[in-house]
Amino acid sequence: MYGPITTLHRKNQRTRDTPWSAFKLMDNGWIKVVNACNILADSNNIQQYFSSGKQPMLWRALPALEDLLSAWEKKCNSPCYTLYKDALNAVLRIQDNHYPLWTIIPLPVFKLVYIEVAWGGAKEQAAEIAKGNADAKNWQDKARKVFDGKFKL
Fold first, then answer.
1. In this structure, what is the dihedral angle of CA atoms 56, 141, 65, 61, given to the nearest 10 degrees?
2. Any residues with CB less than 8 A from the CB of 25 and at least 6 apart, and which?
3. What's phi and psi for 56, nearest 5 deg?
4. Mind listing the pLDDT tens digit for each residue in 95-135?
């Protein structure tokens, strides 16, 4: 039905054909495929939280990232995912290096302070408007309105 998917040619050696049957997965191979799919499904399940055309989505993305990282931490400790433990731990170490503020300070009121420092508040908005940017945003105020709808500050 199909020919060999790979043929090795070497100087002064016999040609070697690898048949399709050499790539057949056994039951334990399929288990590895399913586990890899489960890891990828974790990140696929949260991707819609990261963008919107109408409002900043950081307030939804950060909890989703925290859920994703928690799911991967659980998988690191599961015997089913031993094969992927090093890779998952590497991702978790990267997260710790790049996003320590969100794991150290989980309270929304502290996140609002960070948003003002990093993205700007009323002063930065006024400065942008003075420069001629009529669409300047007070990101802290926008975040506060979102938080007020979700949390009691």
1. -20
2. 33
3. -60, 140
4. 776 665 554 445 555 667 777 777 788 898 899 999 999 88
